């Protein structure tokens, strides 16, 4: 397995490697700086009110936690209920572009970034990318009438005013050694959880570590289908007809979660992890051993090479109870937000 420094550092964080405490003094400085930055930006936006409710789906850790699959499931359910929904995102990994860009299913990934393009393809809703999320929200509102806006990530983007905060936690990894970067995986101290509206947990985790006054949402990854990227053939994930040993190639924040999803389907997995948001090249998908290759949907949307018949994409969804939307609407009502609260 290809192990970059990014993955080496991530593994160290979640294994509580002793050498990381050398970086602890830098982490203290980091915390002080982010608290000052947060106070300044919150003061600047405190006098602004959003024209429609803005809900941030983010996390306090570096790397994947399941934010985008959760957001996609929420958007689909909101749209199903007739609630006009738009999405904003930074568009991480896209080429340098100034100003907001509309994303649809045909947008080149180098203009949109992989996650916004995946959202646009699966949700069929308006998606706006901009490094300035506050500007993205303003631009989105010029494109139509919306009842609610969801931000893919952006919990730490305090220049964007928000009405609801949802923090997503990978239940299998938790918060690692509990330290802030660079000594640990935290973008903000764990106490940040006290001020959010919801904590969404991907998988099982001990509940006692969470503030009792914050509502908890449970969800899990549900495999939907395998899609052959060469032939378009669709295969039920519970009736896989390919090789029992597969190469799993993933350029995502938590490649181990992809590996576990395949293992739960009864497959033996050879994992090839790449840096999050990187583009897979032909050499990354060439093993010449007759084994099937499986990649993520996030990697598939930015694949610009011709695949052979051995390459499959596993599509997943965040399975959650429909009552989650009711809880969201109730929370908006408690804050007297309009119009979704009606």
Salient structural properties:
single chain; 342 residues; alpha/beta; Rossmann fold; Alpha-D-Glucose-1,6-Bisphosphate, Chain A, domain 3; 2 domains; 13-stranded mixed beta sheet; 13 strands; 28% helix; 23% strand; globular
User: CATH H level of the largest domain: which superfamily?
Assistant: P-loop containing nucleotide triphosphate hydrolases
> How far apart are the first and last residues' alpha carbons, in Å?
52 Å
By DSSP (H or I, 4+ residues per run), the number of helices equals 9
Helix content: 25-40%
Radius of gyration: 20 Å
> How much strand content do the residues show?
15-25%
List the uncertain runs: none
Can you walk through the features of this model?
It is a single chain. This protein folds into 2 domains: 5-219 and 320-334, Rossmann fold (3-Layer(aba) Sandwich), CATH 3.40.50; 221-316, Alpha-D-Glucose-1,6-Bisphosphate, Chain A, domain 3 (3-Layer(aba) Sandwich), CATH 3.40.120. The model has no long low-confidence stretch (mean pLDDT 90). 28% of the residues lie in helices and 23% in strands. Helix 3 (67-80) runs parallel beside helix 5 (114-123). It starts with a helix and ends in an 8-residue tail after the last helix. It is built from 9 helices and 13 strands. The longest helix is centred in the N-terminal third of the chain and has 22 residues, at 24-45. Strands 1, 2, 3, 4, 5, 6, 7, 8, 9, 10, 11, 12 and 13 form a 13-stranded mixed sheet that branches.
């Amino acid at each position: 397995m290809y192990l970059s420094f990014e993955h080496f550092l991530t593994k160290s964080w979640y294994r509580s490697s002793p050498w990381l405490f050398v970086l602890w003094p830098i982490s203290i400085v980091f915390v002080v700086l982010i608290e000052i930055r947060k106070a300044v930006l919150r003061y600047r936006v405190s006098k602004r009110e959003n024209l429609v409710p803005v809900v941030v789906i983010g996390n306090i850790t570096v790397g994947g936690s399941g934010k985008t699959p959760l957001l996609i499931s929420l958007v689909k359910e909101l749209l199903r209920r007739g609630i006009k929904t738009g999405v904003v995102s930074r568009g991480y990994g896209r080429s340098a572009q100034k100003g907001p860009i509309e994303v649809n299913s045909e947008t080149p990934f180098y203009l949109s970034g992989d996650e916004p393009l995946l959202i646009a393809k699966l949700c069929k809703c308006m998606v706006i990318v901009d490094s300035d999320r506050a500007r993205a929200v303003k631009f989105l509102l010029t494109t139509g009438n919306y009842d609610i806006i969801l931000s893919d990530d952006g919990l730490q983007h305090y220049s964007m005013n928000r009405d609801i905060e949802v923090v997503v936690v990978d239940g299998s990894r938790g918060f690692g050694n509990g330290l802030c970067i660079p000594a640990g995986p935290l973008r903000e101290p764990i106490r940040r959880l006290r001020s959010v509206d919801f904590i969404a947990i991907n998988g099982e985790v001990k509940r006692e570590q969470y503030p009792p006054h914050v509502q908890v949402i449970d969800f899990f990854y549900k495999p939907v289908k395998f899609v052959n990227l060469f032939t378009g053939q669709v295969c039920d994930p519970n009736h896989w007809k390919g090789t029992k040993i597969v190469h799993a190639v993933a350029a995502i924040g938590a490649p181990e979660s992809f590996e576990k999803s395949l293992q739960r389907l009864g497959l033996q997995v050879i994992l090839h992890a790449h840096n999050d948001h990187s583009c897979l090249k032909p050499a990354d998908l060439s093993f010449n051993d007759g084994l099937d290759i499986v990649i993520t949907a996030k990697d598939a949307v930015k694949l610009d090479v011709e695949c052979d018949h051995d390459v499959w994409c596993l599509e997943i969804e965040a399975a959650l109870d429909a009552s989650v939307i009711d809880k969201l609407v109730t929370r908006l009502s408690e804050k007297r937000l309009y119009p979704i609260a009606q």
